[in-house]
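Hello, quick one for you while I still have it in my head. My current little project is about how a certain protein chain folds up. You're getting the sequence in one-letter code plus the fold written as tokens. Would you mind checking whether the tokens look sensible for this chain? Here's the protein in full, and shout if anything looks odd to you:
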Amino acid sequence: MNDIPVLRVGDVHEVEAFLAERIYEFNAGATGCFDAESFCATQHDEAGAIRAGICGYTWAGCCHVSHLWVEASFRRRGVGANLLRAAEQHAQSKGCRLMILSSHSFQSPAFYERSGFVQQAVVPDDPPGHADLVFVKRLRER
């Protein structure tokens, strides 16, 4: 068991999915919360190409937004706000109390603040000269 693991930098999706399943199994067993569910929503152009999207998951009363992207030509038109609202509505339908996401300081922190998120943590120099910001939004109970 003293072997040094081989680090893979290529296509890691299979290993990442395997590890996520094992961590979920452990976390669900430790908490008794077996309600994890992934979600995504996309915005397409007239030709059917994806121009914006949001992905994440709900688990144990929290909605984690892992990705939110809007193509530059679609920004400042409400597309991102609509995607975030759709995720929030989904989270509320699942009984979530919180939404959690992170954004780099050069991305969209003001957008998230306008959307009701409150900055909870800062990781400085991630990447160098910038910061990783963690935001949380408390959701209203239905």
